[in-house]
User: Which sequence fits this backbone?
């Protein structure tokens, strides 16, 4: 567990560093999350970083057990009047170890996927250790979609990483880096050529 939090804290710090000098007019750039700007995604990361088990349960009750409604409320709550204010809130969250009723490793998955939701539309490149992203991909592949995972999405697919020895599942093959595979199974669009194999088209339809 301590290793997971080291990864999460390092990733929060890296994202903060990437965004500190972002021009004001770039904060409204649409993210890879449909309907959210990069500013919205950062506000979401502030909210989730502060979410304890109790806060999660209370939030779900207020949202009438609707995840989308709960997420929207969190973004509205933590999105500052200015990007600088949201950045300060995010900076204050760097060392936190709060988590909802889910494995702490989901916080690592969240930081990679949502970090790319922000970085890719802004043209910011981030280099991750493939072994760490492979762990995030494996977690997504075995987690049900009802809990934010991709188990149903990858059913019948064989995911083969080109930058690690990770192979998941059996069936129609799709190959790519662990990062590209993670984004694709999480419903994010990837760049042309990042995925290969007959299974690539199946993942593209899941976006």
Assistant:
């Amino acid at each position: 567990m301590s290793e997971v939090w080291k990864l999460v804290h390092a990733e929060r710090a890296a994202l903060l560093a990437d965004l500190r000098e972002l021009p004001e007019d770039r904060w409204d750039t649409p993210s890879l999350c449909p309907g959210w700007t990069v500013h919205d995604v950062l506000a979401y990361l502030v909210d989730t970083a502060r979410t304890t088990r109790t806060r999660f349960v209370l939030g779900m009750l207020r949202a009438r057990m609707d995840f989308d409604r709960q997420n929207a409320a969190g973004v509205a709550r933590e999105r500052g009047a200015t990007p600088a204010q949201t950045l300060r809130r995010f900076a204050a969250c760097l060392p936190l170890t709060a988590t909802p009723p889910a494995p702490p490793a989901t916080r690592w998955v969240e930081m990679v996927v949502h970090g790319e939701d922000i970085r890719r539309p802004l043209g910011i490149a981030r280099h991750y250790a493939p072994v760490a992203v492979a762990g995030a991909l494996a977690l997504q592949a075995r987690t049900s979609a009802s809990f934010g995972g991709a188990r149903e999405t990858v059913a019948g697919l064989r995911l083969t990483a080109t930058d690690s020895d990770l192979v998941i599942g059996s069936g129609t093959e799709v190959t790519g880096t662990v990062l590209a595979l993670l984004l694709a199974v999480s419903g994010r669009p990837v760049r042309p050529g990042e995925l290969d194999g007959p299974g690539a088209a199946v993942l593209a339809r899941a976006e």
